[in-house]
From TrEMBL, chain A:
InterPro entries found in the cross-reference section: HyfE-like
Record keywords, A-Z: Cell membrane, Lyase, Membrane, Transmembrane, Transmembrane helix
Domain of life: Bacteria
Chief localization: membrane
The protein's name in its UniProt record: Formate hydrogenlyase
Coiled coil: none
Residues passing through the membrane, by range: 12-31, 38-59, 65-88, 100-124, 130-148, 160-181, 187-205
GO molecular function, one term: lyase activity
Claim: Chloroplast is one of the keywords in the record: no
Cellular component terms (Gene Ontology): plasma membrane
Automatic annotation (TrEMBL), chain B:
Protein name: Hydrogenase 4 subunit B
Record GO terms (molecular function): oxidoreductase activity
Cited PANTHER family: FORMATE HYDROGENLYASE SUBUNIT 3-RELATED (PTHR42682:SF3), HYDROGENASE-4 COMPONENT F (PTHR42682)
A cellular component annotation (GO) from this entry: plasma membrane
Statement: the UniProt record of this protein carries the keyword Zinc-finger: no
Keywords for the protein's UniProt record, in alphabetical order: Cell membrane, Membrane, Oxidoreductase, Transmembrane, Transmembrane helix
Amino acid sequence: MTIAAQGLTWGIPLLRLLAALLLLLAFAMLAQRRLLTLIHLLAWQGVVLAAGTALVALLTGQAELWFSATLTLALKAILIPMVLHRLLRRLQVRGDVEAVLNIPVTLLAGIALVIFAFSLAAPISALTGTVTRGMVGIALAAVLLAFLMMITRHKAISQVVGFLAIDNGLFFAATSATLGMPMVVELGVALDALIGFVILGIFFFQMRETFDSMDLRHLERIREE
Amino acid sequence: MISCLPLDLAIGALLLWLGLGLSGFLLGGWPTLARRLIFPLSSVVALLLTIAGFTALTATPDNLLLRGPLPALPWSFQTDPLSGYFLILLGSLAFAVSLFSTGYFQSLPGLRLRRLLLQYHGFLLGMGLVLLANNVFTFLVAWEIMALTSYFLVVTEHEEADNRRAGFLYLLIAHLGALAILLGFVVLAGAAMAQGGPFSALLHASLSPFWASTAFLLTFFGFGAKAGLLPLHLWLPEAHPAAPAPVSALMSGAMLQMAFYGLLRVDFLCLDALAPWWGPLVLVAGLATALFGVLFAAIQTDMKRLLAYSSIENMGLILVAFGLALIFRTHGLNALAALALAAALYHALNHAFFKGLLFLGSGSVLHGTGSVAMDRLGGLIRQMPQTAFFMLLGTLAIAGLPPLNGFVSEWLLLQAFLLSPALPQSTLSAVLPLAASGVVLAVALAAYAMVKFYGITFLGQPRGARHAHEAGRWERAAMLLLSIACVFLGLFPDLLLRLLYPVLEEMLGQGLTAQPGWWWLTPISAQRASYSPVLFFLGMAATLGLSFFMIWRFFGRPLRQVAIWACGFPVRTPAMQDSPLGFAQPLLRIFAPLYPTERVEDADSRWRLRVGDPVYRGLYQPLNRIAFWLSAQVLRLQRGRITLYLLYSFLTLLILLAIWR
């Protein structure tokens, strides 16, 4: 894709800003103890993602990216956080998230991950040219941070949030680094995330019925000796 | 079409067997009809297969290609003298066994009978297909059919936990073996780029010595597992007693020989670039197996277990002969290799007949008395005179006494050993006589075990089971046929060697040299050694008759009647006779380190001696412990915590990313 001449002046820095915001939000999620705020952060990540897609659409002039941006906004910034919100109320989960590691250690590990991600992405960025340099690294870092969040939490809902955040990171990598994927791939990824979300939702209700709690540690009991 | 007659006939016979199995399954609602109809027909089909085998010996090799399930993998069949010889073995044994089954399975309930009919014929079909298979794919499919159907036959009486355990053990080792065979074929066929091609294409595989040896070791392991080679023999003494007698007869007589056939087909015909250490390896493994088998046969107290261990011994002898043939061929002495191979093939056929006979006879004993535990039997010669006579012939044959067939093959094997000084390598020719003495020891101990087998069961006084009845007509007919075969092969060995001529010619390019006449057996030259069973038999009969007459004439009167085997002392109770384990006491003392014995107190607070298997304790139990320990270590990974599992995948991801960056 080619970028219109006027876009170079302000478009690319704005895209970089959005990428930075995405990474910042990922860190915020890693540091956040409260489930409700976690969901809000996820919604904000969705908004940033939609804005990024819209920006790329504006810069490259691809009509279908507008469609993609709208879909992202509707799905990731509004619908899924709303459903999660309702889920939280229906399941009456207590607000606090209990972390396996304490927050500062987790954040330090997160910084290490970001450095690792950037060093990994360096050869790829060198290939992609000046425009999207750093984007791949940021997106990869967002994915790894979300993964780290899944590992360090006990509550089942934060696992879902982590899963969706991983999806966000991948999506951002795709749109920003390549300036827009084919629509089919995008729809496929979105569908995957949606189905995973539905399955996990069913799983929550099952789990609540069995253990009367959302704490994953209860699952230890059902392993085979 | 005349030229491809044997193959058509053989495939037709196998299809008929399949049809009989299926119709037997359908006819299961009328058990008597199914049994009386299917089994005799199955015998007729077996006869057809035998005829096919005979024609295949002289006809030109022939093959048939059918479209398989995948485009590159056709079904491929062939007949040549080698498979023809084994078809004769399978067909003639199946002929007698099916006749026997007609009477033997009369008390089997209908549902079980229909399953048995299906599995029995599937088993026969599988063995036949193994012999006809001409490519790797067909061979492996046939091999698995054989293994699976025989597993189901072993667990026919699956209510007893022991039988299920035996079946599982058998299935496990069969699969290990099949896996090794598969890998061996992968090595061979990969080199020849011929997965679907005929076996002859494997011959032209240009293998490096390392890969050739790998293929050899893998296939030797795999076929050895089926043949009951030493560390893998474990399933044999469990599975044979668990199966019904006709099935044991087939498994021991025919299925074990399928392993030998596989060795001949793959390791002898397909791997022609021999490494010099293969032959000695096979020979040593065979010798160890033979000695082990016979030492444990002698101490068994269950008829069928004893026979099973004796099968291990006989397979060991066959492998010794095979190893000797490999050694001779490596050094280019093809005439001697032909002699050793003839001994192996001859013994394979002999074993099929006398072991089949003995297993069938023990089945009759089981039906007649309700038990095959030797410490409950005794004196059956009076209640089952005909069975006892046939069993006597069988035991004499397996003990290797002239003029019966067991002697001939063992004599041929020893002749081959005696010619080993012709080998150019001095170490081998110095060591081989030692191996020969080992063979002689095994043969002598086999005679000891068989004296025990016959003496305890048929002579003396009944030990527990009192009411025995003679076997039925079908059973006796089958045993009669096998006895005749044993006597015939013993008296006219030259005829069989003539049959073997094309087989040896195919395998070595040279048969045994022509014989002067049918009554003399002269393997190499008349100056060295020759043997005439008929003359021997006549001389022996004359001497025996004469001395019997003399004793009877001069010392026969007055007669004093005492109980038999009492040495003239009045036996007060049957318990005063030698017990099965007591008979083996000398061996238990001499080879004490080999027998892990333990004394256990039974319900009547009597001490009983239980003898375990040293291989099981020395090899399998440690392996078992290691496997359990490893599993316990792996179990530590499984904590049931999702976060931990996520951590595993996260770390994996990071490490992979770090490596493939």
